[in-house]
Amino acid sequence: MHPVPSTLAVALMLALPAHARAADSAAADSEALTGAAAAAGATNEFDRIVVTATRTERALDDVPSVVTAIDREQMDRELVRNIKDLFRYEPGITVTTGTGRFGLGDIRIRGLGGNRVRIETDGIAVPDAFSIGSFSTANRNFVDLDTLKRVEVVRGPGSALYGSDALGGVVAFQTKDPSDYLEAGGLEDGTDAYFGFKLGYEGADNGLFGAATAAFGGDRWSGLVSLNHHQGQETENMGEDRSSGPNRTAANPQDYDGRSLLTKLVYAPSENQRFKLTVEGNEDQVDTDVLTARVLAALPPGAPPTTPRTRTTALLGDDRQTRARVSFAHEVDQIDSVLVDSLQWQVYRQDSETTQYTNELRETLSNGRVINPTRREREFNFDQRLLGAEAVLHKDVVTGSVDHALTYGFEYAYTDFKQKRDGRSTNLTTGAVTSTILPDVFPVRDFPTSATTSAALYVQDEISFADGAFRLIPAVRVDHYKLDSKSDAIYEGDNPGLPIVDMTETSVSPKLGAVWHFTRDWSLFGGYQHGFRAPPYNDVNLGFTNFQFGYTAIPNPDLKPETSDGVEFGVRFSNQAVYAEFTTYYNRYDDFIESLRDIGFNEQGLTVFQSQNIANAEIYGAEARAGIDLGALSEAMAGWSLRGSAAWSKGEDRDTGTPLESIDPLRASLGVAYDRETWGVELAGRFAGRDDELPVAGRFETPGYGVFDLLGHWTFAPGAELNAGVFNLADRKYWEAGTIASQQPATSTVLDRYTSPGRNVGVSLSVSW
Hints:
Number of strands: 38
Shape: globular
CATH architecture: Beta Barrel
Number of domains: 1
CATH topology: Maltoporin, Chain A
Largest sheet: 22 strands, antiparallel, barrel
Radius of gyration: 27 Å
CATH superfamily: TonB-dependent receptor, beta-barrel domain
Structural class: mainly beta
């Protein structure tokens, strides 16, 4: 489980007995200035090596921002199956969830989510999300977590190193390499092959999963093949109404099926360099019987009871998504050059596609008779192709008593976006077919076929003073962004005479961070970061016109980039027994883009909608995490440990003072673990306060809760491990942050529809040789 702050942990840290700090002699104090983590001589959370925060390998104790690092062992022991499980014990990071059909949504970091958070796999951006109505939602959940060896999350703006997409933060997924398997299998002892499989069950959705991995290695060549498959049903909730219709509170029936493939081939001509070819792909399909959509239309106010009414008798969803990428990378660890000591570069291509089919049966009731039965078929497509190249170079320079670790590089990405909605309605009595399903006349495009080109240069200098006790880290990045749009007959048919807009933007993103190890065990960190997000293609050229309903959407060539300015300050403590971190932050956001803003009427009397820079917001808060190895304090407590974290934040519209809907209430988690050489158990708690700061009065305020999970692991033979967990031990009814429950009126009768699963179990078995 993840380290998490608790009052108990902090109190114990401050009250450590003298023998836990006996090493703080005068001589040790002098040596401590070379770095707290190394001097402590202990392995804890802050000794973990991360890359994402500075694009260099650094211990967490030496980075100027808050970074969450989750490794493969932790994912296995917490029975992580999806991105919501991944951040189950991480306050400050939320995965949104919907009901009905589309399930998991986006990853929010400190209240900011969607395409404002950069999500990448091996340095390659995950496809964008896009939504246009209840039948068309493309998410970003394209990564099979079983293929990963590590996940790193940088909280707060990251544009200085990662560009436009990193306004809210960075989530970096890293897939496994052949060496990760072969070294674990004992390659140093002559082992040159590995085989392993994993089987498991997840009770929350009756899910089954299986994986098989093979790896080989020699003096120069190595490779791996990993196959994964998963299937299951709807995620259960605590709703008890299983009727068909708007009063249903149980989850809609659902079946999902998915698979993934990861292959890598590595050639190492020497011990200092590697060429790597990666081919990766995954596909998922979800079939949903949307029973909650079986609705009888309400009578208009004042209408007589005999007025004909339409009802939906069935709505079935068939949602599919695929992603495939191929990349070629080169890593060189040592180069004898005045310009560079090491470098990594790669070129890549990635294709993704989301296709969603909706089959709806409707009929009209008139005087107790069924008339005009129809079948409505809709299809939504959202395709994205990404071509790119990047290079990261490093150079260490010593000038007198000051050390410089220079990191510089470039990124280039070309992305094609295509989106289309199609549909037809068939009269089941007459057989008549029409492409008009009001308010649409299909096919339609909600934005023209678009291509974006982004190019960036960045440089960062990690400056070390006083034998490494103080590190100053300035960085700057220049991004050039270009949008090219192309109209076609489909877009023009829905938007006659509407011009399309191209756009060019250049942005400079500076950053300044610092870390000061002022004693053996204590350090201060913090800094300033500027963030930006280029105007999205679909906001610049969002367009549709409907004369019958009297509205139109028009492009906006004057959209400005969204920007942010953020500051962060924190303190860390780390010794053999305890680690702790406390940080505060403030982020100010300007020119947020509001899609489909009503701006009045045009000369034809149509209501005009346009995306505009309208919102100015601020988000601030505090986060803490801590852990204690109780065995380091007393031999009698060997094997016992405590870990915890907490996050509090507040956000509001600076113009109106209205609270931001995306801000979570106070959240925390706490774990008590006992570990032996071959087995261990942990009692993990998740807690949240009442969500009582909502932008609209009268909405449902999700109650606070405390939920406990019991996790266990057992290595019962060499290469064989069993992981098991019981989640929501007390079978408590609760609503999590990130659901749409807070968008419901407090008087709603279907609030149980948005509850989390009750008590459920998970288990996995891994065997390798």
